[in-house]
Design goal:
This protein is α/β, with parallel strands linked by helices and 444 residues long. The chain is built from 16 helices and 13 strands. Helix 6 packs across helix 7 and helix 10 crosses helix 15.
């Protein structure tokens, strides 16, 4: 099936670019936000995107809330995809959903889970969407020629999207290619949990190298990923971080009085579990009756049973509100209701280059932020240095406890004004930078 919006006059007046993506509305979660909004803003800079996405994807999270209309210059193509997760979900529904969502059990995985990880890591390389590569190349090869498209952008993960672009570039004269990495490839943390054989590991490295060498420009969302890729290729690399959209409800939403709400948006998987945070909060509950009376811990997104158990060990269960996955706009409203926003990343070298997309929305909410992650985390280059934010590691219990206590003492405090530097992370401004890269792209 093909969906297009025919606006030939507008498209002919702009440079056309093909965007190959897996995540697209109604997909939920952060993976869809980056390119949905780039596509929305690109026509403002003289570029007409043609978006190629799967027709029948198996998204782990779905957001059915109404989406803003895209400009008339945007064309959308949907083509069928064969999803392995669908084949086995009727047999192992819970385990399949957990694996597709990234809920990999940290300790003592059962036989079934180990088997499913092994199959995922060794039979679906680079990922479970690899069967979409060949039919997509066959379809897009003729589409590109028919519609005179000279630039393609692939965004991953899933990194199979890059393999589609790689094949198109090899077979299409003068086609230019930008490979966008929202996360790294072979250095991403969960690779070590997939029981890959040496053969599978080598194949990942070979495919990654082909993409890094054959792309004409590489985009990353973090500075560490750029540095890692710079050691593997001479291809030009640019950092375009994630960002935020202005939020129309922001001035109408206030934190609740006589309450101290700590809010975390997004998944808290087994390894994203700062036990010293729960310990620090648990101690404050015992030491300060007023703190205990006002405390509310609000979690929007998936929270693993291991993380919930850690909270329970420190007596925090009565204060926890687990909202699960909710539509993106509702999640943003929760940010504005917070007295303190929590930003948490896995404590490992492999994750210091991960800058969660929500940090930019956190900044726009003008609420204090407590960030806990690995040493030398790239987030330190994003968060403004002021008295409202704190950045600690998994070893900084004293800092974390003192910071939470100080924020509680401040009561309801909304920052008077946004740091002017934050405006550069507004998505329209990021799209301006992207448009310059597209227009200046050369095949060499």
């Amino acid at each position: 099936m093909e969906e297009t919006k025919d606006n030939k006059a507008s498209v002919n007046a702009n440079q056309k670019v093909l965007v190959i993506a897996y995540y697209w509305p109604p997909a939920g979660g952060p993976g869809v936000q980056r390119w949905f909004h780039f596509v929305k803003h690109l026509p403002s800079f003289g570029i007409a995107p043609v978006v190629y996405v799967p027709e029948n994807p198996q998204y782990p999270m779905v957001d059915l809330s109404p989406k803003e209309a895209l400009p008339k210059e945007v064309s959308l193509i949907k083509r069928p995809i064969s999803e392995p997760y669908k084949w086995v979900s009727w047999l192992f529904k819970k385990k399949t959903l957990q694996l597709s969502q990234g809920l990999i059990q940290e300790s003592k995985p059962g036989l079934l889970e180990r088997f499913m990880r092994f199959v995922r890591g060794n039979f679906f390389i680079p990922d479970a969407r690899v069967s979409w590569v060949a039919p997509s190349v066959a379809y897009l090869s003729s589409y590109i020629k028919k519609h005179n498209i000279d630039t393609v952008i692939s965004t991953g993960p899933p990194h199979s999207m890059h393999l589609i672009a790689n094949e198109l570039v090899k077979s299409t004269t003068n086609l230019k290619w930008i490979a966008d990495f929202r996360d790294p490839w072979t250095t991403i943390g969960y690779h070590n949990d997939l029981y890959m054989t040496p053969w599978a590991q080598k194949k990942h490295l070979r495919l990654e190298s082909a993409v890094l060498q054959n792309a004409h420009t590489i985009l990353t969302t973090s500075f560490t990923t750029k540095a890692l890729f710079s050691k593997k290729t001479a291809t030009p690399i640019e950092v375009i971080t994630n960002g935020f959209e202005p939020f129309v409800y922001s001035e109408k939403i206030q934190p609740e009085e006589n309450k101290f709400s700590l809010v975390h948006i997004g998944s808290l998987l087994s390894k994203r579990n700062p036990k010293i945070l729960w310990e620090a909060i648990g101690e404050l509950v015992v030491e300060n009756k007023e703190f205990a009376a006002q405390l509310s811990l609000d979690f929007v997104g998936i929270v693993s049973k291991e993380v919930k158990a850690s909270m329970a060990n420190h007596g925090l269960t009565p204060y926890c509100n687990f909202h699960g996955y909710i539509p993106h706009d509702e999640a943003r409203k929760c940010q504005f209701k917070a007295h303190l926003l929590l930003l948490i990343e896995i404590d490992s070298e492999a994750h210091k280059g991960i800058i969660p997309g929500k940090v930019f929305e956190y900044l726009q909410s003008l609420r204090p932020i407590l960030a806990i992650g690995p040493k030398d985390w790239d987030v330190a280059q994003i968060l403004p240095e002021n008295n409202s934010n704190a950045l600690g590691t998994y070893q900084d219990k004293a800092l974390i406890k003192s910071y939470i206590q100080n924020r509680f003492n401040h009561g309801i405090e909304i920052l008077a004004a946004s740091d002017p530097a934050i405006s550069k992370f507004e998505r329209k401004n990021l799209t301006r930078a992207l448009s310059k890269i597209i227009k200046n792209l050369r095949r060499s």
